[in-house]
Amino acid sequence: MIQPQTLLNVVDNSGAQKLMCIRVIGAAGNQRYARIGDVIVAVIKDALPQMPLERSKVIRAVIVHTCKEFKCEDGIIIRYDDNAAVIIDQKGNPKGTRVFGAIAEELRELNFTKIVSLAPEVL
Amino acid sequence: FYRWRSLEREKSGRLVAIQRQDRGGTSLLQGFRVQARCDPGRRPPLPFVPAAGQISCRPFSGDPLGETTGHRMQSLARTVCRAGTRGNPLKLMDCAAPRVEQSFAEPLRSCSWIRQIVSPIIPRDGVQAYGFCTRALAARGFSTVGTAEVSVEDEDSSSPMVEHPPRIKFKRPDKTARHIMNILNKEAVDKVRTERTIPDVQPGCIVQMRVQVPENKRRESTLKGIVIARRNAGIATTFRLRRLVAGVGVESVFPLYSPNIKEIKILDRKKVRRAKLYYLRDRMNALKK
């Protein structure tokens, strides 16, 4: 349940560390929350120095971890301990070259196959 | 409704014969008196139970097995004697009812004698609404329209002798439905348990399990973690597994009887004093991977 003003971790090596969500793509009237697999517009709040991505830059990201439970179709419910996202470009390709953490299998169906293939562990 | 007129009285004042008049016609009944109590403000019930063998009084010609009999059934059903004692009037009704359907293998109690009363309907005999008092069963939320339809399909193998069906208590239908759901749930659980052995996972167990994801790939992943909660719900019993995945804590809820879980192995049991170990979320130190 990510909404504007939510702080998210970044789990790739694009240079940013923390994002703040400012908009959920596809939400009507800003009423909807973002779940795993939704794209958000975020601003970088914290970044590593000397990297292509800098602080206070507006980028898009896809959510990969939520503290809110995510229900899979086979009855398994997954809940992470933190909220995290992977920075993507307009087409959906990740900006970084590595992804950390476990990625849910459902991202594959949402056309984020590149992220899933880079993941060290797929849930 | 009906009207009755007392014809004969014994010396002691007990009613022994009444003349009844209702839609089917008048009839003469002999029987014995019933002590019936009723709440103040209600109509006093008929203190009379007709003796055995006098049920069918008049041919009820031309009445299709339809709403009228259904209506009768309802009024009949509503006359589970509102007398104070619940059991005795039913027993008396039992004596009074002439035909007991033996073919009903598992009759529910009230339904059984209702069916007994309905069976005279089948050969188009008149049915008397005994009308002891109203709204007994309706007050308990009992609906009898369904039973009237069911009993119509049964054969009319009636024996004139009075034989008591096995007495099964029939509570309200929602309680019965819940009972039936419990039985179904238990059957489903037993069925799964006979197929594979599922160990007793309790909170505090370190568990290793093999889960198969059948959607895209036929791969079996091995998960290892600590059970922090268990929720019992029959076939939908779930347990919550907490593990560290690539540096991030992940909690997953698995249905215990899911066919996707191929094997559960308990590695260790930790002594915990709680059913739900949510305090482990704040402690990330000693979690198993």
Automatic annotation (TrEMBL), chain A:
GO BP term, pick one: translation
Subcellular location, principal: plastid
GO MF entries: large ribosomal subunit rRNA binding; structural constituent of ribosome
Statement: the UniProt record of this protein carries the keyword Chloroplast: no
Location within or outside the cell: Plastid
CDD domains in the cross-refs: Ribosomal_uL14
Keyword line: Plastid, Ribonucleoprotein, Ribosomal protein, RNA-binding, rRNA-binding
Pfam families tied to this protein: Ribosomal_L14
Cellular component annotations (GO), alphabetically ordered: cytosolic large ribosomal subunit; plastid
NCBIfam families cross-referenced by the UniProt entry: rplN_bact (TIGR01067)
Similarity section: Belongs to the universal ribosomal protein uL14 family.
Protein name: Large ribosomal subunit protein uL14c
Top-level taxonomy: Eukaryota, Viridiplantae, Streptophyta, Embryophyta, Tracheophyta
From TrEMBL, chain B:
GO molecular function: structural constituent of ribosome
InterPro entries assigned: Ribosomal_bL19 (IPR001857), Ribosomal_bL19_sf (IPR038657), Translation_prot_SH3-like_sf (IPR008991)
GO annotations of cellular component type: ribonucleoprotein complex; ribosome
Coiled coil (UniProt feature): none
Superkingdom as given in the UniProt entry: Eukaryota
One record GO biological process: translation
UniProt keywords, alphabetically: Ribonucleoprotein, Ribosomal protein
NCBIfam families referenced in this protein's UniProt entry, alphabetically: rplS_bact
Family named by the database record: Belongs to the bacterial ribosomal protein bL19 family.
Protein name (record): Ribosomal protein L19
Organism of provenance: Aegilops tauschii subsp. strangulata
Lineage: Eukaryota, Viridiplantae, Streptophyta, Embryophyta, Tracheophyta
